[in-house]
Amino acid sequence: MKDLYLVYKNLTRKKMRLFLTTFAIFIAFLIFGAIMTLRGALNSGVEMSADNRLVVVHKTNFTNPLPYSYVNKTQAIEGVKQVTHANWFGGYYQEPANQVVTFAVDPESYLEVYPELVVEPTQRNAWLNNQASVLVGERIALANGWKVGDSIPLSSNIFSHKDGGQTWDFVIAGIFSGAEEKTDTSYVLFHYKYFNETQSWGGDNIGWLIITTLDPSMNESVAKAIDSNFANSNAETDTSTEQAFNKAFIEQIGNIGLIIFGVVFMAFFTILIVVGNTMVLAIRERTAEIAVLKTLGFESMRIFKMVLIESCLLAFLGGLLGLGAAYLLIQVASEYLARFLPNLVLDQSILLQALGYMLLLGLVTGIAPAISALRLNIITAFNRG
Amino acid sequence: MSSQNLFELSQVAKRFTKGKETISIFHDLNMQIKEGDFLAIMGPSGSGKTTLLNLLGGVDQPTEGQITFDGQRIDNLSEGQLAKWRANNIGFIFQFYNLMPMLNAARNVELPLLLTNMSRSERKQQVKVALELVGLSDRASHMPSEMSGGQQQRVAIARAVVSDPKFLLCDEPTGDLDRQTADEILQTLQLLNEKFGKTIVMVTHDPSAAKFAKHTVHLNKGEFVKAEELLV
User: Fold this and answer.
1) What is the pLDDT along chain A (385 residues), one digit of tens a residue?
2) Can you supply one Gene Ontology CC term for this chain's record (chain B) (predicted)?
C-alpha cells in the first residue's frame, strides 16, 4: 500500500502519454462493451430459449404460411405436450416508422407454451374474454406510454381489414412482464381468431407452430416425426429447436460470432501493442530511478510488483472509462432501438469479462517491463545512465 | 569516539570477465574503516574507487575475500538480504543526486522510510527532521526541477540520513556543484560526521573536497598507495 503513491506518481508523470494510452484502452473497451452488448441482445432469443420448445415452419421459407389444420395434427404426435401457433402481423402504431412487433396468437395455449410471460390473472382473463383486445409487453408499453384500458390503433403493412383499410382498433387488456430481465417484452399479442375473421385474405393459415415436448430428450424424435408427418404434402415442414431456430434467424445477418470476434480481436491486439510498447519505453526511461530504488534497499520483487500494478492500473483506468462510456452509449441507443433490440443491456457477465480482460491486458503489457526491472543490475544501470 | 572497526575488507579480490578477457580490479585488498571515521578515497579514473564503493555499499560482491560490517559478513548475503542490509545500514549520496523527478523533496526523502514499519505520521515527522537538518524545511513541497543543484544534493543527503543509518557512502557528492555550494555540502557532511557520529566514505577527484575528511586514502590500479606515488 505504501508503494501505491509511488506507482501513482509514475503513472501520471507524463500527462500526455497517460492521456493517449488511456484513450487507446478507453476505445478498446468502449468497442468491447458495445459490441458484446449488441451480441448479447442479438443472442438473447437464443439464450432465453426453452429446452423443450420446438418451432415448426414451412420447409421452403419460414415466411410461407402453414394450414391451420396442422395444429391438431401436430398435437396428435407422440411426445408433443402442447401446441400453439403465431402469425406475423407486421404492425405499426400511428406511423409506419413506429413499428410494433405484433403477433396473432391463440391466447390460452400461447401463454401456456410461454410461461415466462407474466400477466396478472385479472388482466389475463380480460384479454382471453375480449377478442378485440391486445396483451402488450411492458417494454413496448413503456416506449409508447400505453396503459391498461387504452385504445390503440395498430396498422399492418401486410394485411388489410375486411372493412377496408389496414388498421385494427384494439383495447389494451393487459401488460405482460418477463420472468427474467432478458425476457423479451417488446411485442404485442392479439387473438388469432379475431385476426382470421377480420382480415381480407389468407384465412385459416398460420405463420408457424410452437410446440413443447414432454422431455427435451424427445426433441429430436418429435421433430423428425412432425416433419415425416407432413412430408410430401403441399406444405412440408422444417422443425427445429427454438434455440436453433433463433440462432439461424440471427445468422441471416452473417456470422455474428465471427464478426464480433474479429472486431474485438483487432481492437485488443492493437491496444496490446500500443500499451505494451508504451510500458516498455516508460520503464526503460526509468532505468536509473529503478537502480536508485534498488540501491536504497527496495527489493527486486517489490519493484516487479510496482511495475505490474502500474500497468494494471493503466488498463483499469482506460478500461473502466471505456466501459462507462459503453454503458452510457447503450443507455441512449437502447431507447432508440428498443423495438428491434429489446435486450440491449450491458449485463453483469459482460462487465466481469471486461474486468478480466483489463486484468489480462495489465498483466500482459506489464510483464516484460516488470521482468526487466526485476533483473536490472544496479551497476549496469548506473553505467548505462 | 569509538575506535572499533565498522568495515573490514580482508583479502578482497574483484575480477570482471569481458568477453574472453578477465579484468582484475582488486587483488588481495585489505582495509579497515573505523566507526565515526570520515574517509576520502581519491584516485585517477579506473583506479577502482567506484568498485570499492559498490563493494562497501553492498551493491556488488567480491570475487574472493571477506567483507565484514559491524561484525557481520556481507559478502555472502543473497541479493534480497543485501537489499535489506542496505536499507538498514547505508545512506547513499550520488554525484547527480538521483532524486525521483516526479516526487517532491519530502516524498523523495521519505523513500527509505517506505522500507520500514513506520506509520505515515511517523514518516512525515522523520522527513521534517531530516529536511531541517539540511536546511530545506521550506522546500519540502518543491519538485527537484524547481531546485538548484546544491539544494537537490541536500535533499539527497536528507534522504540518505532519514532512516538514521550508521554509514554514509558518497560518490563524488560535489562533482556537479560550484565551489561555494560544494563547500556547503561538505560542511553538512562534516556536521553529520562530527555531531551525529555518522561514518562516511567519500569518493572524490577533488583534493579540496578531500580536505573536509578526517583521512584520505589513494587508490591506484586497485591498490592503496601514498599520495606522492600518484604523481609519478
Assistant:
1) 789 999 999 999 999 999 999 999 999 999 999 988 888 887 776 666 778 899 999 998 888 999 999 999 999 999 999 999 999 998 899 888 888 999 999 999 999 999 999 999 999 999 999 999 999 999 899 888 999 999 999 999 888 888 888 899 999 999 999 988 778 888 999 999 999 999 887 678 999 999 999 999 999 999 999 999 999 998 999 999 988 887 777 776 667 778 878 888 888 888 889 889 988 998 888 999 999 999 999 999 999 999 999 999 999 999 999 999 999 999 888 877 766 676 788 888 899 999 999 999 999 999 999 999 999 999 888 876 5
2) transmembrane transporter complex
A108–B contact, CB cutoff 8 A:
no
Q: What is the ipTM of this complex?
A: 0.91
Question: DSSP of A280-311, one letter per residue?
Answer: HHHHHHTHHHHHHHHHHT--HHHHHHHHHHHH
Nearest to A180 by CA among A266, A117, A105, A250: A117
Rounded-to-integer distance, Cα A172 and Cα A193, Å: 17
- Kindly state the cell numbers that stand for B78: 543473497
Q: What is the CATH number of the domain that holds B60?
A: 3.40.50.300
> Are A150 and A171 contacting, i.e. CB atoms less than 8 angstroms apart?
yes
Quote the number of domains for chain B: 1
Q: Which residues of B touch A3 (CB under 8 A)?
A: 114
Q: At residue B219, what are phi and psi to the nearest 5 degrees?
A: -110, 140
Tell me phi and psi for residue A161, to 5 degrees: -80, 145
Q: How far is Cα A83 from Cα A226, in angstroms, rounded to an integer?
A: 12
**CA–CA gap between residue A16 and residue B103 (Å, rounded):** 18
Q: Which of B74, B79, B161, B170 to mutate to test the interface with A (most CBs of A within 10 A)?
A: B79
CB < 8 Å from B in window 298-317 of A = 298-301
Nearest one of A195, A204, A208 to A166, comparing CA atoms: A195
Q: Is residue B172 classed exposed, middle or buried when 0-12, 13-18 and 19+ CB atoms within 10 A define those classes? A: buried
The single-letter code of the amino acid at B49 is K
B41 phi-psi bin (left φ>0, alpha ψ -120 to 50, beta other): beta
- Which of chain B's residues have a Cβ under 8 Å away from the Cβ of A293? 111
Domain locations along chain A? 2-46+254-384, 60-235
- Domain extent at residue B114: 5-231
Which residue in the block uniquely carries the three cell numbers 519493484? A303
Amino acid (one-letter) located at B16: F
Contact A292/B112, CB-based, under 8 Å?
A: no
Per-residue H/E/C for chain B: CCCCEEEEEEEEEEEEEECCEEEEEEEEEEEEEECCCEEEEECCCCCCHHHHHHHHCCCCCCCEEEEEECCEECCCCCHHHHHHHHHHHEEEECCCCCCCCCCCHHHHHHHHHHHCCCCHHHHHHHHHHHHHHCCCHHHCCCCHHHCCHHHHHHHHHHHHHCCCCCEEEEECCCCCCCHHHHHHHHHHHHHHHHCCCCEEEEECCCHHHHCCCCEEEEEECCEEECHHHHHC
The grid coordinates listed for A36 are 458484446
Q: In this structure, what are the phi and psi dihedrals at residue A201, rounded to the nearest 5 degrees?
A: -150, 165
